[in-house]
Amino acid sequence: MDLATPAGFRDVLPDEATARERIARAVQDAFAARGYAPIETPTLEIMDVMRAGGRVSASPFKLFDARGDLLAMRPDVTMQVARMCATRLVDEPGPLRLRYMQRVFREADGSMRAEAREMTQIGIECVGASGAEADAEVVGLLAEALSLTGADECMLALATVGVLRALLAACGASAAWKERVLDAYHRSNFVELDRLVAEGAGDGGAPPVFAEAIRKLPRIRGGREAIGEARALVGPLGCEDGLDAFEATFDALERRGLGGRLLVDFSVMSSFDYYTGLVFEAYAPGMGTPVGSGGRYDSTIAPRGVARPAAGFAFFLERAMEAASATGRPRASGRPGENAAPREGSFDGAVDPPLRIAVPKGSLNADAVAALAAAGLDVTGLADPGRALIVRNPGVEYVIVRPTDAPAFVASGAADCGICGEDSLLEAEPDVVELVDLGFGACRFVVAEPAGAAADTLEHQRRLGSIRVATKYPRIAAAHYARRGAQVEIVKLHGNIELAPLTGMAERIVDITATGTTLRENDLVVVEEVLSSTARFFSNTCAFRTDARIMHLADELARNVRRSSTAREERK
Ligand SMILES: Nc1ncnc2c1ncn2[C@@H]1O[C@H](COP(=O)(O)OP(=O)(O)OP(=O)(O)O)[C@@H](O)[C@H]1O
Ligand SMILES: O=P(O)(O)OC[C@H]1O[C@H](OP(=O)(O)OP(=O)(O)O)[C@H](O)[C@@H]1O
User: What's the ipTM?
Assistant: First the structure.
């Protein structure tokens, strides 16, 4: 008999269970002292209810019940509370102050399979109260709860979603363009945002003043002054929605003594769909994923058509305990835990732990090293590291990775930021901030088949209803064929993809081509274009928000890209 626990699940031993019990009691007591009453929600939830709030976190376990309803083990509790308030609590006079501590079930995405699939969510919802004091109450309680767990070095990043909504509503762009902008915000893809803005009004985009504001907004960050910066950006366009309330909330939190733990960051709204005002996330030093998050979601609870104000948060007990006990990831030098406060954009290494950058080996390596050197980093030893996998220089630490692994290193927080091809990011779909198109490593993804095989491929398709497509990039290939509505069977290979149609293993391939030499030498021809790719500089989401050196480096890299493209233009 195999005595293992299911993947992503674990037993909790007495030591840890005792600590969990103590912390949970302290946190629940603190919530209760503020008038929050306990609730419980079902472990299984109807999928449609979960989806009512927009994007849902992936639940690893779904099943049909005997009535034919599609159920999921809850990945989140907020939508369940919203449902509870819209139904059985609908006639209760507000404000309702509710607290919970429940297990939730999450599917770790792609490369992050080592993550837990069962976690303990502790949260509150405050329904029926609005205004700065209500918002500050919620944020203040998150800070207090995290302190009670021992994770008192957590930083809180705040934003309000009203500004972006107002910009999109007023800009006059096409619905499709606005949808793409929102999607780029959600995916924290600044490169795509820049591209959409550059498209211009002619292609359904926003006129330049609005487009520029939409591009700049997620880059606004700092302390209180960042609110003023946002105001200066969107005020002239009449899009200050929610900023007064946001400022009042910030003041109220400062009055509660939380000023030193607050970051204003308008990219935080990337992660949310159903929020209508304040949004916030809590980051612990050295941890690659947020410990908790929350916000105001006034229109979600709309019983009998009447919206009810609501705000809340949830945090993961396990992550908070990890943040408290440690220390985050092991660091080769510098003291862990020091990188909580937003830091200045310097690389002197005197105070800060070194910035850790994932650098691709292989064909992108030389250009990546050159770009980092041109941005002012000390790249000594990086071009020729021998068998060393980590190169340490003052203020910076390079981890040398296979390009396909770079997204996993950065998304998990094992590296603060990194470089790899856009193709690797598209394939891994990691939760990272995509910051700069570095321009090098240009290649195309194409569908190819042996020259003269078109008729055979068609016949195969006609007889069997699908064809076999070999690729190293199953997600990119599947997305391409899904867009075209064509049925294929994907054969995943790790290299020398061209062999597949030459040996009868598949009819076609989806693969990278740059010079076209490999296709030519193997007598393959391109039958479709899929996408083109260049190298990207990208960042861990928490590191991006708490470490000012990353934006500084992104700015330097982007400036150099612009400089070389201007020089190229001038030479023409
Ligand atoms: N002709 C090309 N062939 C392969 N990759 C290219 C080419 N041109 C540019 N690239 C970029 O370089 C990256 C791959 O680099 P490289 O060939 O060194 O690694 P790999 O061995 O294919 O990947 P891994 O080691 O991660 O499996 C691609 O992801 C792509 O972004
Ligand atoms: O158009 P070209 O300039 O000839 O480049 C294309 C070749 O490069 C890539 O292979 P890679 O070198 O990454 O090796 P792999 O087959 O092991 O992936 C790709 O898979 C092609 O085989």
Answer: 0.94
